[in-house]
Design a protein that fits this description.
Layout lengths: L7 H5 L6 E6 L6 H18 L8 H4 L2 E5 L1 H10 L4 H15 L16 H12 L13 E8 L4 E6 L22 H8 L9 E6 L7 E7 L9 H9 L14 E6 L6 H7 L4 H23 L1 E2 L24 E6 L5 H7 L6 H6 L9 H15 L15
Parallel strand pairs: 1-2, 1-7, 2-3, 7-9, 8-9
Antiparallel strand pairs: 3-4, 3-6, 5-6
Helix pairs in contact: 2-5, 2-13, 4-7, 5-6, 6-7
């Protein structure tokens, strides 16, 4: 079966055809788990579309959204990279960027060198590639947080977006932002990296207006799935895809569900960080609950013994989207269900860390094992298959 390869504009078009969104969580180097899932998804969808070696996830998904490490992966996917190419690059990038140094210790200094991360991202995307560039083959949305205003920013290459092009007063359009810089902003996790400063407006005779951006994970959208859905369907964002279980497929991939008990023990003296982590976890569960509440989902899971998996509680009476969520339980029992050979308690406890390159091989293996167990051909409704050329 041959399939029609669409342009970026065609991916965004409100053309009456089913649309597909891929959303990738933040989580530091645990993003290698996400890659394990994506390898299986790409393999499955490639087989569904004739086994063409040139098939890429950017051909299937009309919008790819990412926060933090998910933004790194999303950007590469939108450029047409295969998942195997991303896996290989992710391994080398992670080890290069998260190199610990005694010279960077101290209460008021970021743990890692932001300049090194910037150079690596320029090498991945090209220093001159802008968000509106033709190099991006499908829709892309990256979540960052503007620190000086306190507002989450979904930054996209939607050509009809209100802020895609430049505006009066020297406002620089999102389409002119360097891709590497937008991704760098989304990955600027507090403590780990310094904020990224982006020039928002500049004109002759005026002082440039700049914003300081940090990791989108400190907004409600470390999991960008709900923000991506709002971006694609709310009229203000000027995409306006229709809702409906046969109209919109949302695939959300996590970086591992942290073991709250491990985090509490590890951060017992850092109440501020514990509170932030707890809030992020609560936001993640709330997003999953809301999305499952409004959807038809082949991967629906029970949230607790009171509300179950919400299969009898559709918020609108009918499913508004088709929704898939893939993730890994990083608690000891969850890990050992996937890989009984992993029996080092200290190693399993360390899997929740976001900056441990030594864990990447094991985490990737867990992602692949979970994908083999959880990602099924029947999860993806045939109505969302690509049109034939």
């Amino acid at each position: 079966m041959s399939y029609k390869i669409r342009t970026r504009v065609e991916h965004f078009d409100r053309d009456g055809k089913p649309k597909r969104i891929l959303a990738l969580d933040g989580g530091g180097l645990r993003g290698i788990l996400t890659v394990g899932f994506l390898q299986k998804v790409e393999e499955l969808l490639r087989a569904r579309h004739g086994g063409d070696a040139g098939f890429r996830l950017c051909h299937y998904f009309d919008l790819i959204a990412g926060t933090s490490t998910g933004a790194i992966i999303a950007g590469a996917l939108a450029l047409g990279w295969s998942v195997e190419e991303i896996r290989a690059k992710y391994m080398t990038l992670g080890k290069a960027v998260f190199e610990k140094s005694f010279l960077r210790q101290g209460l008021f200094r970021a743990k890692y060198d932001a300049e090194k991360l910037s150079e690596e991202l320029k090498a991945v995307y090209g220093a001159r590639t802008v968000l509106g560039g033709s190099e991006l083959l499908t829709g892309l949305m990256i979540v960052a947080k503007r620190l000086d205003s306190g507002s989450p920013w979904p930054i996209s290459n939607n050509p009809r977006g209100k802020y895609f092009a430049g505006r009066e007063g020297g406002v620089i359009g999102n389409g002119d932002y360097p891709l590497w810089q937008v991704v760098r902003a989304s990955t600027a996790a507090p403590v780990y990296f310094e904020p990224e400063r982006i020039t928002i407006a500049s004109a002759p005779g005026m002082k440039p207006v700049q914003g300081d951006f940090v990791d989108g994970g400190v907004s409600p959208y470390n999991n960008p799935a709900l923000q991506a859905l709002m971006y694609a369907t709310l009229e203000g964002y000027r995409i306006g895809w229709p809702l409906g279980a046969d109209e919109l497929l949302l695939v959300s991939v996590g970086t591992g569900a942290a073991d709250a008990g491990v985090r509490t023990a590890a951060l017992a003296a850092q109440h501020g960080i514990r509170s932030l982590v707890s809030l992020m976890q609560d936001s993640a569960v709330l997003q999953e609950t809301v999305l499952q509440w409004m959807s038809s989902s082949a991967t629906a899971r029970p949230f607790d013994r009171e509300i179950g998996d919400l299969r009898h509680d559709l918020v609108a009476g009918v499913p508004l989207i088709s929704y898939l969520r893939y993730n890994v339980d990083l608690g000891k029992e969850g890990v050992q269900r996937l890989d009984p050979a992993l029996n080092d308690d200290a190693m399993i406890a360390s899997f929740v860390e976001m900056d441990a390159p030594e864990n990447m091989d094991a985490l990737h293996r867990l992602g692949c094992l979970a994908a083999e167990r959880d990602v099924r051909d029947k999860d993806f409704p045939a109505g969302f298959d690509l049109a034939q050329a």
